[in-house]
Design brief:
Length: about 325
């Protein structure tokens, strides 16, 4: 089949534009393949459960509403995130903001002004401290016992009033959020402050049990049948979803690998790191089935994710409404 040269005069929407990339090359064609897999995933009549891994500074980068809307529309059924993205979501839910850089200032000067920089985005450090303190205060309201990150984040989201919040929307829509490296974030810093305070007072404290997370997400996988994945970046969220099948094998549970997978990454596989590892490599571990539909685009997620989401919205007649999962995850994991 000949290459079809891109015609910028003839496309009526983002979905039409991306689908035309099927006949171009390189990452544009990969972007079209990702859309194709996403549509297969969402139109599958067996209703696969979709796990999404969220890494990188997606909330400061302006992707908060995209992720929130994917949860609200039930494109995403289980979210695994870095603590940083959830902290930044909470930050905005409390009325604070991230700011577009319109003038370059030296980082030494920024430190003197207590302004934190995330590439070309700014935020007030003193406001971050207020967000941290809100977590400390919230932790004070919890019973002193072990919690999974899923339960903790559900309770945190449940008390937020911001309808545009990822945490609040997930709590409302029965979408579990896991943060397997919660301590590696400002949320973890705040919980450290809470525990230090309790130890100083000689009182009992609540704590996060990361192994409980493993059992809970494994139980969700076991109850889900067919599953799919969307990886935004790599890191811990990607690995945590990837390891479900190997973990099940060691535990003695019989589950299959994921049947659909889409990956948006800027990492290169040749360095051997998990963030850049190919989905084909995952098949060697059984993390994806041998017949899985999968696609990877090597592209900045702040470009690829909103383009793909908008294309799905334009194709809503094919998959929407996507029914909310009826499974009561809280009851399910409580049965462990």
């Amino acid at each position: 089949m000949p290459v079809r040269h891109f015609d910028g005069l003839s496309h009526s929407g983002v979905s039409d534009l991306i689908e035309s990339f099927k006949y171009t090359s390189f990452q544009s064609r990969n972007l079209a393949r990702c859309l194709d897999v996403l549509l297969k995933m969402l139109t599958d009549p067996t209703r696969p459960v979709v796990f999404m891994g969220l890494a990188g500074a997606m909330v400061p980068g302006g992707m908060r509403k995209v992720v929130r809307d994917m949860v609200k529309l039930h494109i995403v059924d289980v979210l695994v995130s870095t603590g940083a993205n959830l902290l930044h979501d909470l930050h905005e839910a409390l009325g604070f903001h991230h700011y577009v850089e319109n003038k370059q200032v030296s980082d030494v000067e920024l430190r003197e002004m207590r302004v934190d920089r995330i590439y070309d985005t700014y935020a007030h450090d003193n406001e971050f401290i207020q967000t941290d303190l809100s977590i400390v205060n919230f932790a004070e309201t919890l019973m002193p016992r072990p919690y999974s990150s899923r339960e903790f984040l559900y309770l945190l989201g449940k008390q937020l009033q911001d309808k545009e919040s990822i945490l609040a929307t997930a709590a409302e829509e029965n979408v579990p959020i896991f943060c397997p490296a919660l301590n590696d974030s400002s949320i973890g810093i705040a919980l450290t402050a809470h525990r230090a305070k309790k130890l100083k007072e000689g009182k009992k404290y609540f704590l996060i049990d990361p192994i409980e997370d493993n059992l809970e997400i494994l139980r969700i996988k076991e109850a889900s049948g067919k599953t799919a994945t969307i990886y935004i970046g790599g890191g811990v969220p990607k690995n945590y979803i990837q390891q479900l099948e190997p973990m099940a094998e060691v535990v003695g549970s019989n589950v299959q690998g994921h049947v659909y997978a889409v990956q948006i990454t800027t990492d290169d596989p040749k360095w051997g790191g998990l963030s850049g590892c190919t989905l084909e490599e995952a098949q060697s571990w059984g993390k994806l089935t041998a017949e899985a539909f999968h696609a990877t685009v090597y592209m900045d997620a702040t470009i690829a994710l909103p383009f793909l989401f908008r294309a799905l919205v334009e194709k809503k007649e094919l998959w929407y409404p996507r029914p909310r999962l009826k499974q009561d995850w809280h009851q399910l994991v409580d049965s462990i």
